[in-house]
């Protein structure tokens, strides 16, 4: 279960030194800004400083065509007053601009100052990932080597592979959070991802294949099981497979989902619906269902932000709280929601450390981290054998959910027909659709082979994108609607 | 057309312009053969009202600079790299330049890379395009909040089954964009935007919920719709989805409401994307000049569109479309391009790079973000409307689906395979009978574009694209 990550000697450097030394912040300035933010009567304020450097390298048609680097620095000031949020941000960290942003955010409240800024207490940080990142110049050559290897492996896989794009993107995000309730936290968050995209062509058909992976890791992650060759062959294999795919079936049938990335089902079917903000506002199909049965008793789903090196993991959330493992569904019963500071305060429930934001220019909200279903007892082979006629889906593109009516979709990119317990023809991509609070009640078998995805997930909510992970063992759903065109 | 703009840029533009010029000059001094800088600045306001109370209020501005550099490679062609930063201090710009110069050393020589020829640069007359109206900034915050509140109140007051909402928003944004390169192009323009929306939630007696939304947006505050009208439409849209059921798996005609037809038919433009074409990663690769859709299909990309609106006091106001701009991301003038004419693929969506790859001139469709090389992006687009009203289009359908929304990522432009989640209204004997949900619609775009059996007359530009109601035969619906 744990990520295949070496245990590097994490430096105990406090991340805040970066902001204090390089960007000129002082504790006194943070206190002044928070004081200014509370000056119109707000009951809570926080400052979120962020400095991100990102690098992107891409090989395309055998040429390194893309090399890009970006630097983004800024601060978001948030003021809470009851259920109201005032927010302003600046990409200029001079004291004048910071104080101006604080004054702007303060105006969400109107009255004399009531709350005071508490003395800062530095939160105890976890060390789930290396804090150096892989952005140093010396590593550019090593990264180029990786994408060159991916390019070659994809082309060598089969002469029908006609186009290959391989890229590696990485970023190092430094954050510092100071809040009027005394929260003081900082972190350095590396993130890397290798991607391969291929086109396969024969005399009749053209098909695409994609693969990729990564996490909060160093370059040595991309050796062994996560090598460029592994991702390149995966992309090439799926593209070649699609050249001979038949139409996917249409209608309700038994569906077996393979381990790993198909866990996107959980993310869409239940994950979003369990984010506390939607439930506080009663706009989620899961509102008021805590303690009720929302899945078969074989289903236990958790959200876990503490998995070493994982793409969805965080030492602290974007409100400065340590992340944790939260049980969402236990043996089919809905146990809890994912909450941030505002939701936990207004709903009188524990804060699960789920407050996340895309950047300093966005307001935090409850989000998932790594969301997965625990292993069950069934042998994956037995699960397939039990299906008379159905679909075996092992890889997916994206998914989407309407949290209000609970309807969700996810689109299979690699799937096969199952006939009399045997996997037969590969089928073309098809969208699967279901109803969140109902779909998992039809889970009749759960495999003993839990796997997490390879580190490719990005989740969008209200226009904000954050990296996430998903995972699942092989499972069987007795019924689900498959959106193909065949019989 | 001549380089640059005919009128003096606004004062704030001058600073962005001089920062961009400085970055280009520094890059040339560092040995670059060519360089190009872009600068963006925006001021944004957003308020979210829910159940009558202000829930979130955001007010902020941001600025950033992006740079591309080109170096001649010994083996021919050019090496290129790009950098971007939000740090506009001289130190920040020095790092921007040195970073790009260093990075360019690791890239490969690409015979197709490089800025356009200088005689191709140009910009449309910015004043004529009417993209910026200062009146969006003149609405006081209290009034913006009040508009969102009135819009939500109208939705809540419309029907007893609407007691909750996901909120009403009011957004204002003004932005400036500057682009300068070492071959003599220099251009800049401002844009304004304001708009509001509401998302009411309707609830059945049995507790089942449905939500929908409606909005009004414009470049000038004078053109915003009445908040009450928008609230009422949003309420009706949410209410008509209540009580949705599933339908059996079947083949039948599918009518796409104008809202959804827009994204469906936009695939015609996406499939003509030069980047996908030269990679053979599009179903339209190698099909230029061939029939790729029914003869009733004419699809146009036009980044030059302006609209003349008649105001309540009888005067007219001209505004540029939401997809209108004076020059593209390569510095070429924006133009109107017929992509599909009577079903024949007439032109491709090309920027300078993809044009060179295909040995064709750019069609002015370069889109330039802060980082990286220009991609492909269109301006405004529309499908040539037909003669029928939406009612006439469904009148002869004994059994079929009227689609109100689609979900998912099941569109594959390489193969044309299309499979999306859907909800809408069931058509029985030519009339909208009851709402349906939790179904999928599937087919192949290559067939679907040939099987458009009716096109509506209801073309309306609510965003950069507009497509009327469209009816397609022979799609598969998967349901119960």
What are its keywords?
heterodimer, A: alpha+beta, PmbA/TldD fold, 10 helices, 23 strands, globular, disordered N terminus, B: 480 residues, alpha+beta, seven-stranded antiparallel β-sheet
Written overview of the protein:
The complex is a heterodimer of chains A (487) and B (480). Chain A is of the alpha+beta class and 487 residues long. Chain A folds into 2 domains: 16-243, 2-Layer Sandwich (PmbA/TldD fold); 250-483, no CATH class. Chain A is built from 10 helices and 23 strands. Residues 1-12 of chain A have low confidence and may be disordered. By secondary structure, chain B is an alpha+beta fold. Chain B folds into 2 domains: 11-239, PmbA/TldD superfamily (PmbA/TldD fold); 250-478, no CATH class. In chain B, 22% of the residues lie in helices and 37% in strands. Chain B is built from 11 helices and 22 strands. Chain B has helices at residues 11-29, 90-104, 126-129, 135-138, 141-158, 227-239, 258-270, 274-278, 352-357, 390-395, 445-448; strands at residues 34-50, 53-72, 78-85, 162-181, 186-203, 209-211, 214-218, 250-256, 299-302, 306-310, 316-320, 336-341, 344-345, 366-367, 375-376, 380-383, 399-407, 417-428, 431-444, 452-455, 465-466, 470-478. In chain B, helix 1 (11-29) packs across helix 2 and helix 5 (141-158) packs parallel to helix 6. The model of chain B is unreliable at 1-11 (pLDDT under 50). Chains A and B meet through strand 2, strand 3, helix 4, strand 7 and strand 8 of A and strand 2, strand 3, helix 2, strand 6 and strand 18 of B. Strand 3 of chain A pairs parallel with strand 2 (53-72) of chain B, so a sheet runs across the interface.
Strand content of chain A: 35-45%
Mean pLDDT of chain B: 95
Content-based structural category of chain A: alpha+beta
Q: What is the mean predicted local confidence, pLDDT of chain A?
A: 92
Count of DSSP-assigned helices of chain B: 11
- Global morphology of chain A: globular
Number of strands of chain A: 23
Structural class of chain B: alpha+beta
- Head-to-tail CA distance between termini of chain B: 59 Å
Could you list the spans of chain B in which at least 5 consecutive residues all have pLDDT below 50?
A: 1-11
Mind telling me the CATH class of the largest domain in chain B? Answer: Alpha Beta
Largest interface: A-B, 76 and 79 residues
Biggest beta sheet summary of chain A = 7 strands, mixed
């Amino acid at each position: 279960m744990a990520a295949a990550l070496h245990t590097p000697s994490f430096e105990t450097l406090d991340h805040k030194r970066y902001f204090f030394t390089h960007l000129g912040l002082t504790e006194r300035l943070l206190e002044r800004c928070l004081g200014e933010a509370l000056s119109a009567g707000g009951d809570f304020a926080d400052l979120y400083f962020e400095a991100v450097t990102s690098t992107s390298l891409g090989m395309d048609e055998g040429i390194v065509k893309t090399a890009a680097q970006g630097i983004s620095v800024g601060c978001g000031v948030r003021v809470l007053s009851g259920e109201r949020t005032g927010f302003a941000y600046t990409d200029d960290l001079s004291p004048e601009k910071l104080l101006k942003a604080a004054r702007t955010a303060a105006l969400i409240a109107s009255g004399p100052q009531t709350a005071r800024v508490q003395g800062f207490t530095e939160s105890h940080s976890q060390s789930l990932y290396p804090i150096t990142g892989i952005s140093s110049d010396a590593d550019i050559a090593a990264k180029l080597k990786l994408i060159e290897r991916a390019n070659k492996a994809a082309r060598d896989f089969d002469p029908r592979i006609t186009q290959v794009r391989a890229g590696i993107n990485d970023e190092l995000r430094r954050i510092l959070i100071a809040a009027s309730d005394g929260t003081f936290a900082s972190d350095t968050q590396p993130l890397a991802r290798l991607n391969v995209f291929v086109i396969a062509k024969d005399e009749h058909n053209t098909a695409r294949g994609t693969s990729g992976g990564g996490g909060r890791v160093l370059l040595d992650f991309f050796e062994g099981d996560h090598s460029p060759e592994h991702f390149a062959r995966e992309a090439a294999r799926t593209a070649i497979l699609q050249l001979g795919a038949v139409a996917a079936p249409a209608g309700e049938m038994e569906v077996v989902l393979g381990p790993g990335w198909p866990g996107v089902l959980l993310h869409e079917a239940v994950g979003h619906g369990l984010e506390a903000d939607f439930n506080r506002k009663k706009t989620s199909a899961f509102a008021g269902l805590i303690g009720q049965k929302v899945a078969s008793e074989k289903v236990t789903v958790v959200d876990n932000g503490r998995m070493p090196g994982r793409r969805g993991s965080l030492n602290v959330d974007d409100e400065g709280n340590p992340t944790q493992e939260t049980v969402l569904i236990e043996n089919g019963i809905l146990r809890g929601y994912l909450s941030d500071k505002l939701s936990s305060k207004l709903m009188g429930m524990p804060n699960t450390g789920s407050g996340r934001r895309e950047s300093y220019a966005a307001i935090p909200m409850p989000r998932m981290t790594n969301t997965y279903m625990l292993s069950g007892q069934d042998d994956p082979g037995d699960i397939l054998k039990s299906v008379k006629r159905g679909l075996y889906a092992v890889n997916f593109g994206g998914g989407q959910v309407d949290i209000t009516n609970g309807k969700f979709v996810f689109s299979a990119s690699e799937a096969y027909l199952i006939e009399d317990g045997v996997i037969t023809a590969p089928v073309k991509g098809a969208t699967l659709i279901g109803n969140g609070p109902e779909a998992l009640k039809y889970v009749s078998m759960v495999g003993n082979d839990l796997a997490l995805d390879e580190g490719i997930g990005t989740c969008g909510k209200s226009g904000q994108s954050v990296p996430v992970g998903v995972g699942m063992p092989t499972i069987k759903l007795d019924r689900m609607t498959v959106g193909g065109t065949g019989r | 057309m001549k380089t640059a703009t005919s009128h003096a840029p606004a004062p704030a533009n001058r600073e962005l312009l001089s920062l961009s010029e400085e970055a280009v000059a520094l890059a040339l001094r560092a040995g670059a053969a060519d360089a190009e800088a872009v600068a963006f600045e925006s001021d944004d306001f957003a308020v979210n009202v829910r159940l009558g109370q202000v829930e979130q209020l955001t007010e902020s501005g941001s600025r950033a600079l992006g740079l591309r550099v080109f170096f001649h490679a010994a083996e021919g062609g050019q090496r290129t790299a790009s950098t971007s930063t939000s740090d506009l201090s001289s130190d920040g710009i020095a790092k921007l330049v040195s970073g790009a110069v260093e990075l360019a050393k690791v890239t490969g020589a690409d015979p197709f890379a490089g800025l356009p020829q200088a005689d191709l640069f140009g910009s449309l007359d910015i004043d004529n395009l009417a993209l910026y109206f200062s009146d969006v900034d003149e609405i006081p915050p209290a009034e913006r909040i009040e508009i969102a509140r009135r819009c939500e109140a109208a939705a809540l007051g419309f029907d007893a089954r609407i007691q909750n909402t996901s909120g009403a928003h009011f957004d204002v944004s003004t932005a400036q964009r500057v682009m300068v390169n070492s071959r003599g192009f220099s251009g800049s323009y401002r844009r304004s935007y304001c708009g509001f929306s509401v998302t009411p939630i309707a609830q059945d007696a049995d507790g089942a919920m449905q939500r929908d939304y409606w909005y009004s947006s414009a470049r000038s505050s004078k053109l915003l719709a009445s908040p009450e009208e928008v609230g009422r439409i949003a309420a009706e849209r949410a209410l008509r989805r209540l009580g949705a059921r599933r339908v059996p798996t079947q083949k039948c005609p599918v009518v796409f409401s104008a809202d959804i037809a827009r994204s469906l038919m936009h695939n015609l433009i996406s499939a003509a994307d030069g980047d996908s074409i030269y990679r053979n990663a599009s179903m339209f690769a190698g099909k230029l000049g061939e029939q790729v859709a029914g003869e009733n299909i004419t699809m146009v990309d036009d980044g030059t569109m302006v609209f003349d609106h008649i105001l309540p006091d009888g005067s007219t106001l001209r505004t540029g479309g939401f997809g209108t701009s004076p020059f593209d991301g390569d510095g070429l003038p924006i133009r109107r391009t017929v992509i599909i004419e009577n079903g024949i693929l007439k032109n491709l969506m090309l920027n300078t790079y993809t044009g060179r790859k295909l040995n064709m001139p750019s069609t002015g469709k370069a889109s330039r973000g802060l980082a990286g090389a220009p991609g492909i992006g269109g301006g405004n687009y529309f499908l040539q409307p037909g003669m029928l009203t939406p009612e006439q289009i469904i009148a002869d359908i004994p059994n079929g689906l009227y689609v109100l929304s689609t979900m998912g990522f099941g569109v594959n432009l390489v193969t044309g395979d299309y499979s999306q989640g859907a909800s809408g209204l069931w058509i029985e004997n030519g009339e909208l009978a009851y709402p349906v949900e939790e179904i999928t619609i599937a087919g192949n775009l290559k067939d679907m574009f040939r099987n458009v059996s009716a096109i509506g007359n209801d073309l309306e530009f609510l965003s950069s694209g507009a497509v009327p109601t469209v009816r397609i035969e022979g799609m598969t619906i998967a349901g119960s």
